[in-house]
Specification:
Elements (H helix, E strand, L loop, with lengths): L5 H23 L20 H16 L11 H13 L8 H28 L2 H24 L5 H7 L7 H18 L13 H17 L4 H13 L3 H26 L6 H5 L12 H8 L4 H4 L9 H26 L1 H19 L4 H4 L7 H26 L1
Helix pairs in contact: 1-4, 1-5, 2-3, 4-5, 4-7, 5-6, 5-17, 7-8, 8-10, 9-15, 14-15, 14-17, 15-17
Length: 399
């Protein structure tokens, strides 16, 4: 397959950024009809994002004032919002919604487009395939919305809005940091012959910084840390693993300090604070309490009740089969290009999918899966190419 030139690749990225901006302006003008209000900066529903936004804002405002308060979110995103809160002198979350909308929906997502294109280039070793993946990444919220409307899904509009990176929520900063970290990790490999021993201390520091801040933003990004450390250890790079762990610990230190100042110990987290008044009424900061309240293997199929209370087992079987098929065929194609990158991509995808799939109400919003979207896109493209090649081979043999 003939590849496209570097110049065409760059202009295609710019074109997709412009397309994204146009599509978002249309959304702000209620095209398609999703009930946008407040000048196009807010949706009509508030039942889900509103409590989270308040928690995040209160925490960010306290930090901007040099204080700490016991709130649920990790410290990363409130730190990210501190300059906005400080310079706008905001007193409540609605005071910064426009600034956050513009920063995330336009600027951060534009950066995400660039990162997905660069990631695709590393994984496929093809600018053309990387660009196909980036196109899918750019327009998938609208494709998803169309599918949900056809399926008569009650939460079609909220699920669509959550994909647009426009709320005061941790998911979007988390996603961009995951994309950046995986790109850096892929970049530090030698093309076609991965050798993580070539990662210098300066590069490890940069990677540890993005990984550390990703975990500061969402505790679920522990899978990013595990994927990187696991790969280093698989290559028996003990020295690099030790350096990375030490550097990561330095960048993650703000969370441990915050936990100590707020909850009395570094291992006590705000997410556990949300579940501390559980069924027995007692205070319990342990992670086992958090998982008992919000997570469970049964959620893998029960979450599909948000799609259809009566036919959720069918939805579970359909989606599970589809994802497994895409993963298997996609991996078969990607491993021919670079087996190590293929393994990392499949681990990247399934670690986030299984973790958040088992989380209560995750399928009603879909925002939790944002870090895994590029990995799915790459596997999907690989699966399509693998399937088409097999069909072509079969037809050729039949003749």
């Amino acid at each position: 397959m003939p590849d496209i030139s570097k110049k065409t690749f760059i202009w295609a990225i710019i074109g997709l950024i412009v397309l994204r901006i146009i599509l978002m302006i249309l959304v702000m003008n209620n095209i398609p009809d999703t009930g946008m209000r407040d000048g196009g900066f807010r949706p009509t529903f508030t039942e889900s994002y509103h409590p989270d936004e308040d928690e995040i804002f209160d925490m960010g405002r306290a930090l901007a004032s040099g204080k700490v308060i016991d709130r649920v979110p990790n410290v990363g995103y409130p730190i990210f919002l501190m300059p906005i809160i400080y310079f706008t002198n905001a007193h409540a979350a609605p005071d910064i919604t426009k600034q956050v909308f513009i920063l995330q929906a336009f600027i951060l997502f534009s950066l995400a487009i660039i990162l997905v294109a660069l990631l695709g280039r590393k994984i496929f070793f093809s600018r053309k395939l990387a660009m196909i993946g980036t196109v899918l990444f750019t327009v998938y919220p609208w494709l998803l919305f169309g599918f949900f409307k056809l399926a008569n899904y009650d939460n079609a509009v909220p699920a669509f809005h959550y994909q647009l990176w426009m709320f005061i929520l941790t998911d979007y900063l988390s996603a961009i940091l995951v994309y950046l970290s995986f790109y850096l990790f892929f970049k530090f490999f030698k093309d076609n012959n991965p050798d993580v021993g070539h990662i210098k201390t300066a590069r490890l520091t940069f990677l540890a910084a993005t990984t550390g801040f990703a975990l500061l933003t969402r505790i679920g990004n522990i899978w990013l840390l595990i994927a990187i450390l696991g790969t280093l250890l698989c290559f028996k790079k003990i020295k690099e693993s030790f350096k990375f762990t030490l550097l990561f610990s330095v960048f993650y230190l703000p969370q441990l300090i915050y936990n100590t100042l707020t909850f009395g110990a570094p291992w006590r987290f705000g997410y556990a604070y949300a579940a501390r008044y559980s069924e027995g009424g007692g205070i319990n900061f342990g992670f086992h309490n958090l998982f008992n309240v919000y997570f469970g293997i049964s959620k893998l199929w029960l979450n599909f009740k948000s799609f259809s209370p009566d036919y959720y087992p069918i939805w579970f079987i359909f989606v599970s089969t589809f994802l497994i098929l895409v993963s298997v065929l996609g991996f078969k194609y990607l491993r021919r290009i670079n087996k190590t990158f293929a393994i990392i991509t499949i681990v990247w995808f399934w670690s986030y999918i299984l973790f958040y799939w088992s989380f209560d109400i995750s399928l009603s919003q879909l925002r939790y899966f944002l870090p895994a979207v590029p990995a799915f896109v790459f596997l999907f493209i690989g699966a399509m190419i693998y399937g088409i090649n097999k069909i072509y081979e079969y037809r050729k043999l039949s003749y």
